[in-house]
């Protein structure tokens, strides 16, 4: 690659792992959907904003909306209301959810609990099947063989179509995958220009090796990139702004595109709950990264030069 060449730009659609399911290469996340007293009508506007922008990949979890006082399942239930009011929306989306955490227990992936969690998600979402079911965080006390059996049973019963994990180490991914008949199609670590661990700890290399689609959660560091406070966060913002300014996009769009330039095909999960910001995310397809600029962001995030 010469100095003037740029890294390949991702296609707008790709297959989810080794499945036949086609997903947009930017996803929309609903962690914050059930906040701020949002009604089903408000939520519907956001779902439409994502779908109309070409994002068909929507990510939720049973614990989203948990407020520490019994609000479990609220984000799924709100989306379920949206789908009940407008059933045609279901066919336009690849619906991803997660389970395996039920407060006050830290994590629970015992067969009985996990099977009941899948049924409860289906009921709240008012759908017959979840396109991608992810284990939210690993339960250290669940044998991967037992977890695999429960997940395979759910696939066999048609309750879920494909399987993924989130916040798993590479060894936890390998152990679960070993026991699964229906191999994992995705992994969901935290990835952003402020959270770069998986670029160097082997998680993305494993994703490429196994053909897993990596979904990046909190791609703006939970919003920190929009308003950086620490010296290190500011330094990352400066490097993103250089590219954003030159290419006429916002810093947040530059951040999404920076993740998408990685060869593993990272899908950033846009966390904004504002229609304008959701739509703006697709400008990421316009951004071109040179190796030089890409590494400059990484080095700023590391806070020290590469060896
Ligand atoms: P994020 O994109 O890092 O942060 C989004 C937050 O930043 C929103 O509160 C948003 O507010 C705010 N923000 C401020 N300025 C913004 C700007 N200019 N553009 C866009 N957003 C701006 O993502 P996240 O919400 O933390 O996480 C994204 C998704 O990742 C979640 O919805 C969920 O699906 C997934 N997730 C997964 C896990 C896991 O353990 N697997 C954990 C956390 C999240 P506004 O809404 O006002 O725009």
TrEMBL record:
The keyword Ribonucleoprotein does not apply. PROSITE patterns: ALDOKETO_REDUCTASE_2 (PS00062). Keywords: Oxidoreductase. It holds the Pfam family Aldo_ket_red. It comes from the Bacteria. Its EC number is 1.-.-.-. Residues 26-294 form the NADP-dependent oxidoreductase domain. GO terms for molecular function: oxidoreductase activity. Transmembrane segments: none annotated. It is an enzyme of class 1 (oxidoreductase). InterPro entries: AKR, AKR_Detox_Biosynth, Aldo/ket_reductase_CS, NAD(P)_OxRdtase_dom_sf, NADP_OxRdtase_dom. SUPFAM superfamilies: NAD(P)-linked oxidoreductase. PANTHER family: NADH-SPECIFIC METHYLGLYOXAL REDUCTASE-RELATED, OXIDOREDUCTASE YDHF. This is Aldo/keto reductase family oxidoreductase. It comes from Sphingorhabdus buctiana.
């Amino acid at each position: 690659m010469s100095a003037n060449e740029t890294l390949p730009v991702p296609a707008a659609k790709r297959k989810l792992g080794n499945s036949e399911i086609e997903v947009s290469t930017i996803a929309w996340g609903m962690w914050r959907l059930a906040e701020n007293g949002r009604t089903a009508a408000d939520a519907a506007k956001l779902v439409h904003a994502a779908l109309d922008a070409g994002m068909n990949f929507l990510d939720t979890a049973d614990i989203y909306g948990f407020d520490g006082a019994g609000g479990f399942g609220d984000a799924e239930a709100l989306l379920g209301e949206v789908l009940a009011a407008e059933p045609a929306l279901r066919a336009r989306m690849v619906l991803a959810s997660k389970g395996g955490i039920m407060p006050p227990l830290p994590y629970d992936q015992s067969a009985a609990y996990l099977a009941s969690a899948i049924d409860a998600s289906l009921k709240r979402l008012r759908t017959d099947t979840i396109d991608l079911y992810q284990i939210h965080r690993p339960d250290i006390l669940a044998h991967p063989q037992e977890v695999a059996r429960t997940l395979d049973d759910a696939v066999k019963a048609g309750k879920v179509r494909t399987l993924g994990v989130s916040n798993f180490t590479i060894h936890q991914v390998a152990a679960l995958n070993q026991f699964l008949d229906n191999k994992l199609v995705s992994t969901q670590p935290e990835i952003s220009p402020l959270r770069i661990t998986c670029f160097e700890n082997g998680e993305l290399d494993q994703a490429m090796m196994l053909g897993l689609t990596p979904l990046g959660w909190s791609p703006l560091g939970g919003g920190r990139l929009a308003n950086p406070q620490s010296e290190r966060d500011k330094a990352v913002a400066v490097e993103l702004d250089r590219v954003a300014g030159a290419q006429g996009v916002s810093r947040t769009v530059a951040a999404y595109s920076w993740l998408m330039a990685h060869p593993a095909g990272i899908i950033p999960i846009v966390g904004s709950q504002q229609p304008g910001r959701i739509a703006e995310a697709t400008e990421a397809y316009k951004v071109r990264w040179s190796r030089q600029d890409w590494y400059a962001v990484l080095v700023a995030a590391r806070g020290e030069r590469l060896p």
